[in-house]
Amino acid sequence: MVETIMTTSTPLTEGTPHLGRRRRWTLLVTVGTGLLLITLDNSILYTALPTLTRELDATWSESLWIINAYPLVMTGLLLGTGTLGDRLGHRRMFLSGLIVFGLASFMAATAPTPEVLIAARGLLAVGAAAMMPATLALIRVSFPDERERNIAISVWGSLSVVGGALGPIVGGALLEHFAWGSIFLVNVPVVVVAAVVGVAVAPADDPHPDVRWDFISSVEALVTLVGLTVLIKEVARTERDGTVLLAAALTTVVAWWVFVRRQRRLPFPLLDLSIFRNAAFASGVLAATIAMFAMGGLQLATTQRFQLVTGFSPLESGLLVAAVAAGSLPSSLLGGMFLHVVGLRVLIGGGLGVGAIGVGWTLVGVEHGLFWLLGGLLVTGLGLGAAMSVASTAIIGNAPARRAGMASSVEEVSYEFGSLAAVALLGSLLTTVYTLTVRLPEGAPPEAARSMTDALTAEGTGPEVLDAAFQAFGNSYEVVMIVCAGVLAVGSVLTTVLLRRYGPGSESSAYGSSH
């Protein structure tokens, strides 16, 4: 039984023409390219982080903000840009976002200080936030047939997985031959090509002037996420600042309360909270968040461990975690193709469960050799690919077409918040567990107790100090992997319960192609 999430639905505007088959799939490639850039920039810094920290003389905290600025700003803006796309037209939002993304990439590539790079990453997020909901919304309105649309969304989801997995590889490969700025500069020519093709194939804008974009709600959402991010980072620190902790907690709670209250009073809210009553929609959001949290934590921790402890190059560590993408591609593509047969419950609940097993396998495999480690990463990707391939379908298929931008925004917020939480919590946890468990010998440089990076670069670091540091960082890696596996296992149980009515052969969407 499909649960109703809206009391009324409005047909897609009659003036919106159906695109020809070739044009539809060319559009999918174009918006997929934009999505690939967005997700690639989310993870490209995982392998580049040690190099950036060294070249810009950044502290560990600044390094985490260089990563966090991108998903934080993007997540805070996504709800607003999705609704703005409903109002102004998704074609306009996609092309405008591409231009901003290209300009910000050039700014990031030439940044002279950590502060400028953080600002450039924030501007990158503005462009990404404009593009991202538009990519999925354009698919929603351009593919009228539900099964064809499911396949298109699964391809779109696969590109999201591929972009996240390619980030460490691309970053490592570029750093092998070029300066660190190349990891951002590579975006520029791709942006130019995508913009030219986008102008030619994207459907004409179909704006809905009756949809209202509320700037105040966007600010409230951003403040909520900033407060939550600071709160997570502060909780994970060993030396907590009580004032900062209290201020972050109060800011998060008050901003969220004000945001929710405002949404309930607006005729066109940025976030229609009633949509979460649909079990498929809610499960899709939960699965997307949890899958990206686990994938982001796994990639960040694994690339750092093998670069800092084992001595892998950025490219080698990037190729290692690419096994997650290799495992996810077949299950991601097949998930969308056979969703109407298998059902959401098996693919989402089962996929997260398989992912949990894979992370546990990966943790054990670290001690038994590279072959076992790769096996665990492949199994992890197999599970997460299945869940993520249909999480987007569960979200976008259970909202009316006139609110495609809002639904796309919720979907993107889910993915981005998962990545953001992974870096904020698990990135801080890597350092926290290290400082709590490191046992340095007498006479060791005091800075070696702060982080693994400091232990490697501190003057006077000898073999005994490095052995102690390696052991402590191994403890950090183990804790992070256990957290990832535990979150996936809990997510598997929750989504399986929520999707008890969405078994094999069940309908996955509450809305047909014209609603």
Automatic annotation (TrEMBL):
Cited Pfam families? MFS_1
What keywords sit in the KW lines?
Cell membrane, Membrane, Transmembrane, Transmembrane helix, Transport
Q: Name one GO molecular function term.
A: transmembrane transporter activity
Record's Gene Ontology CC terms? plasma membrane
Do you know which InterPro entries this protein is assigned to? MFS, MFS_dom, MFS_trans_sf
Question: What name does this protein carry?
Answer: MFS transporter, DHA2 family, multidrug resistance protein
Enumerate the subcellular locations listed in this protein's record, separating them with semicolons: Cell membrane
Q: Which residues form the Major facilitator superfamily (MFS) profile domain?
A: 27-503
The way it spans or sits in the membrane comes to: Multi-pass membrane protein
Instruction: Name the predominant localization.
Output: membrane
